C-alpha cells in the first residue's frame, strides 16, 4: 500500500490539455483534490500561523519568550504574502531571531518585509501612473493603519484627512478593516 500526496501551484488539467503533463500519470495521481486558497485570500489564518511559527522557532532555538503585538499582527495580516505560508514562516522566524525585545512591533514587521525581495507584480516602478499612484496610496494607508493598531480615526489624523474620506478610500483600495 502506498499513499502519494502531491502539491502544485499549477492546474494540472491545463498542463494535460497543453501536452506538458502526461495524461496517464495525471489520472494515476488524481484522487482526492484539496484546493487551498493562497494566504492573501484567508487572512483570518495569519494570526494562528504566525503565533505557531513564532513559538516553534522560540522552542527550536531556545530563545526567550516573545509576543507579536496587535500592530505587528495587523501589519502581518495586511501583507499580501506573494510567497504564501512559506514566506510568512520565514518572516516570523527572522523576527523571532532578530528582534531583541520581548515584543515584536509593526516597525519590526515593516523592516523584515522591506528587506525581502518583492515580486515584479508588486513593483511600484512599473505600470501606469494611475496604477502606481493606487499602489502608493494603498501602501501608505496600510502602514499608517498598522502604526495606529487599525484605528481609522487616528490614521486619518496622521494622514491629515477626514475619517469618513479615509474609510471610503480604504473601501476603494480594498484595504480590509482590522
Describe this entry's structure for a reader.
This protein is an all-alpha fold and 178 residues long. Helices cover 56% and strands 2% of the residues. The protein has helices at residues 12-18, 23-29, 46-61, 70-78, 84-98, 106-114, 129-147, 152-158, 163-172; strands at residues 67-68, 103-104. A two-stranded parallel sheet has the order 1-2. Helix 4 (70-78) packs antiparallel against helix 7, helix 5 (84-98) packs across helix 6 (106-114) and helix 7 crosses helix 8 (152-158). The protein starts with 11 loop residues before the first helix and ends in a 6-residue tail after the last helix.
Structural class: mainly alpha
Report the major sheet. Answer: 2 strands, parallel
Helix fraction by DSSP (H/I, runs of at least 4): 55-70%
Rg for CA atoms = 20 Å
What portion of residues belong to β-strands? under 5%
Largest sheet, spatial ordering of strands: 1-2
How many alpha or pi helices?
Answer: 9
Mean pLDDT: 86
Task: Quote the distance from N terminus to C terminus.
Answer: 48 Å
Question: What is the β-strand count?
Answer: 2
Quick recap of the structure?
By secondary structure, the chain is mainly alpha-helical. It is 56% helix and 2% strand. The longest helix is centred in the C-terminal third of the chain and has 19 residues, at 129-147.
Annotation keywords:
2% strand, single chain, two-stranded parallel sheet, 178 residues, mainly alpha, 9 helices
Note the topology:
Blueprint: H1 12-18, H2 23-29, H3 46-61, E1 67-68, H4 70-78, H5 84-98, E2 103-104, H6 106-114, H7 129-147, H8 152-158, H9 163-172
Parallel strand pairs: 1-2
Helix pairs in contact: 3-5, 4-6, 4-7, 5-6, 7-8, 8-9
Amino acid at each position: 500500500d502506498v499513499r502519494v500526496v502531491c502539491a502544485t501551484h499549477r492546474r494540472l488539467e491545463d498542463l494535460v490539455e497543453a501536452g506538458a503533463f502526461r495524461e496517464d500519470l495525471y489520472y494515476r495521481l488524481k484522487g482526492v483534490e484539496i484546493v487551498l486558497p493562497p494566504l492573501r485570500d484567508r487572512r483570518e489564518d495569519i494570526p494562528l500561523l504566525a503565533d505557531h511559527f513564532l513559538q516553534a522557532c522560540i522552542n527550536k532555538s531556545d530563545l526567550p519568550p516573545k509576543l507579536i503585538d496587535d500592530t505587528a499582527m495587523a501589519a502581518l495580516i495586511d501583507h499580501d504574502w506573494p510567497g504564501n505560508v512559506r514566506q510568512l514562516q520565514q518572516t516570523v522566524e527572522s523576527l523571532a531571531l532578530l528582534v531583541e525585545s520581548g515584543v515584536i512591533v509593526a516597525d519590526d514587521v515593516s523592516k523584515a518585509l522591506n528587506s525581502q525581495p518583492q515580486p515584479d507584480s508588486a513593483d511600484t516602478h512599473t505600470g501606469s501612473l494611475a496604477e502606481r499612484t493606487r499602489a502608493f496610496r494603498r501602501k501608505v494607508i496600510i502602514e499608517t493603519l498598522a502604526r495606529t493598531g487599525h484605528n481609522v480615526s487616528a490614521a486619518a489624523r496622521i494622514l491629515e484627512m477626514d475619517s469618513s474620506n479615509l474609510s471610503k478610500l480604504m473601501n476603494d483600495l480594498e484595504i480590509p478593516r482590522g
